[in-house]
Amino acid sequence: MKFFHIADVHLGATPDKGFPWSYDRGREIWESFQNVIRQAGRENVGLFLIAGDLFHRQPLLKELKEVNALFASIPNTKIVLIAGNHDYIKENSFYKKISWAKNVFWLSKEELSHVDFADLGVRVYGFSYHSREILEARYNQMQISSSPMPVNILLAHGGDETHIPISGDTFLYTPFDYVALGHIHKPQVLQKNKVIYAGSLEPLDKNETGAHGYIKGEIRKKEIYTEFVSSSIREYRTVSIQVGKDTTQFSLENEIRKTIGEQGEEHLYTILLEGKKPVHTEFFTDAFYKLGNVREIEDKTTMAYSKEQLKENYKGSIMEAYLALFEKEERTEEMEKAFQYGVEALLESGEELL
Question: Residue 147 CB: number of other CB atoms within 10 A?
């Protein structure tokens, strides 16, 4: 029996507000969710697990109806979901007013509950958030009574100090055959084929670099096998561009444009400039934002100079006195950086000539 495990879809989010692609990202989150639902239908998936934060905030009734219609489009797939800290169940939540399709099973209680699927041989446990924060480590040493099902799965959401803390040994001796985790947006495996964060379906922040998607699993004779499926429409990527003595504004723009073209124009980029640039060279970094979906420019370059040449060129100047201050000292990495900043500041200001 195949199953899909997704989490942190965050329908309704509009990442990167103020950037030209922000509106498209909000639409793409819905599109990505639709894609994984359709894929589940194509693969005849028996069980579809959603480990919290399907919505970025309290869902609107029309949004819930849209989601429910998507769920109903794969009637042979059992869908089990819980609410997370973003879409927690408030007193007046529209979650309480929706009549889910027959194949949808909503573990809405604050206490641990479960649903049995005798035809699949699976029992799924879970509970929903009814507040933004849960400080108690509720998953620690969690035990369950005897289950009639061969396979027992926990839907869980948390992992930081204000949202159900989870430590390295929380699920070390878990009675569950599989723990489908949500809340942490980067996919990660805590225990192979057993305790896994699916990560967010789409990246929502520049720090969420790398592949995003969902977990595809298969249950064979009580054994569980899983794999990560990369499916996001876009990724946040950080690319390093090397600068040298011959680098010009024109050549740098061409290199950035070429790199974006090779890695994918759809992705969202932080450009990291590294290396040594010639003295008195400055780059007009604002121009780089027009070369693609460039979110941020980080200029880590330093000026290329020879200490001996500086001493020769600027005898009797502030520069010579500054160089002498550092000449005999053993410098740590931090002191070396400070020294370089000082040299660059003098070169840029022209005061080294005084």
Answer: 16
Do β-strands 223-230 and 213-220 pair in parallel, antiparallel, or remain unpaired? Answer: antiparallel
> Are 63 and 194 contacting, i.e. CB atoms less than 8 angstroms apart?
no
User: Against a cut of 0.90, is the pTM above it?
Assistant: no
Distance, C-alpha 137 to centroid of its chain = 23
Cα separations in angstroms, 261 against 223, 265, 268: 43, 6, 12
List of domains in the chain: 2-230 (3.60.21.10), 240-353 (no CATH)
Q: What is the pLDDT of residues 160-213, one digit of tens each?
A: 999 999 998 999 999 999 999 999 999 999 999 999 999 999 999 999 999 999
- SS3 percent helix, strand, coil of the chain, rounded to 5, is 25, 30, 45
The strands making up 223-230's β-sheet, listed across from edge to edge, are 104-106, 78-82, 47-51, 2-6, 213-220, 223-230
